[in-house]
Amino acid sequence: MTLINRRNFTKTTLLGGGIFLFPGCAIKSDNPLFLFFNDKEVKTIVALCNQIIPADDDFGGATDAEVVYYIDRQLNSFFKYDSSLYRQSVLKLQSFCLEKFNKTFSDLDSDKQISVMRMMEKNKLDKVKWKNSSLFFNKIRLHTMQGFYGSPIHGGNKNFLSFDILNINGLLRQRLESPKK
Amino acid sequence: MSFKNHVNVVVVGSGAGGGVVAKELSILGYSVVLFEKGKWIGYNNKSNDELSDQRNQVLGANFGPNINKNPRSVIDEHGNETIFNSLQGYGNIAECVGSGTVSYGAMAWRFMEEDFKMKSKYGHVEGSTLEDWPISYHDLEPFYEKAEWEIGVSGDDSKNPFASDRKKPYPMPAFEINKEGKILEKAAKRLGWNPFPVPMFRNSIPYKERTPCMRNSICVGNACPVGAKNGTQNTVIPQAIDTGNCELRTECIVSEIVLDDKSKVKGVKYFDSSKRQFFQSSDIVVLSASANETARLLLNSKSKFFPNGVGNNNDWVGRNLQSHAYTGAVGLFDYEILDFDGPGANIAISNFSHNNNNVVGGGILHNEFNRLPYQFSQIRPPGADMWGAKHKDFQKKNFKRLSRVNGPIQEMPNYHSRLKVSEKYKDFWGIPIIQFSGKRHFLDHEHCKFLSIKAELLLKEAGAIQTWQKIGGKGQGRGQHQAGTARMGNDKKTSVTNKYGQIHDVDNLFIADGSLIPNNAGFNPSLTIMALGFWVGNYIGSNFKHLLKHQA
Ligand SMILES: Cc1cc2nc3c(=O)[nH]c(=O)nc-3n(C[C@H](O)[C@H](O)[C@H](O)COP(=O)(O)OP(=O)(O)OC[C@H]3O[C@@H](n4cnc5c(N)ncnc54)[C@H](O)[C@@H]3O)c2cc1C
Question: Which of A100, B19, B79, B408 is most buried by a 10 A CB count?
Answer without folding.
Answer: B19
